[in-house]
Design goal:
The chain is an alpha/beta fold. It is built from 6 helices and 8 strands, in the order βαβαβααβαββββα. It binds flavin mononucleotide. Flavin mononucleotide binds next to α1.
Length: 173
């Protein structure tokens, strides 16, 4: 397997904790863990296998020019990257109990930026195991990446991560 670039943010919370679990499940030696806030499109272009990890902290934050969270800074870089020869997988932190109309929306926002650029996104996840009403991350009837709820379902995280990693492994280059 070629090295995987795992770009994640924000730091210091659930996203970082889950990023480390994903890396461990893939084998830490196969993964470069890279904080999104410091990364440029050239860093993304170093990898043919790319994983993006992010949390949803309110749709308004994502669409505001004023906020400066890690992904506001990184998203324009992600959009500049070359997707002609990459496999992309994504996981998203969220909470469908408190935000059941916007569950892991950020995954969908990210996908909508890179799908038109020809990105091949693997690792879609069935919606049945998550009781949410609406999510921008549901594309063609499935979550476009792995949703993880560390706020209310932390006991499910290891199994979710491990199953998902097994599902993407055969797709990676
Ligand atoms: C202000 C705020 C807004 C949030 N908005 C959403 C949301 O729209 N959709 C969602 O799925 N989760 C939402 N969440 C839940 C977070 O995504 C969740 O707590 C996540 O684990 C945070 O990850 P982090 O610790 O890496 O930031 C929100 C949390 C906060 C504090």
């Amino acid at each position: 397997m070629k090295k995987i670039g795992l770009f994640y943010g924000p730091l210091g919370g659930s996203t970082e904790r889950v990023a480390k679990k994903v890396a461990a499940a893939l084998g830490n030696e196969n993964v470069d863990l890279i904080p999104a806030k410091d990364a440029k499109s050239a860093d993304v272009d170093k990898y043919e296998n790319v994983i993006f990890g992010l949390s949803t902290i309110g749709k308004e934050t994502w669409e505001s020019d004023k906020s400066a969270n890690d992904w506001d800074v990184f998203l324009p870089e992600v959009e500049k990257a070359d997707y002609s020869n990459k496999v992309i997988a994504m996981f998203g932190l969220g909470d469908q109990i408190s935000y059941d109309l916007h569950f892991v929306d950020a995954l969908g926002v990210l996908a909508e930026k890179i799908l038109p650029k020809g990105a091949k996104i693997v690792g879609a996840v069935d919606t049945e195991a998550y009781d949410c009403r609406e999510s921008q991350a549901i594309i063609d009837g499935k979550f476009i990446g792995l949703p993880v709820n560390e706020d209310f379902e932390p006991e499910l995280t290891d199994e979710r991560v491990n199953n998902w990693v097994e599902s993407i492994k055969p797709e990676l280059k």
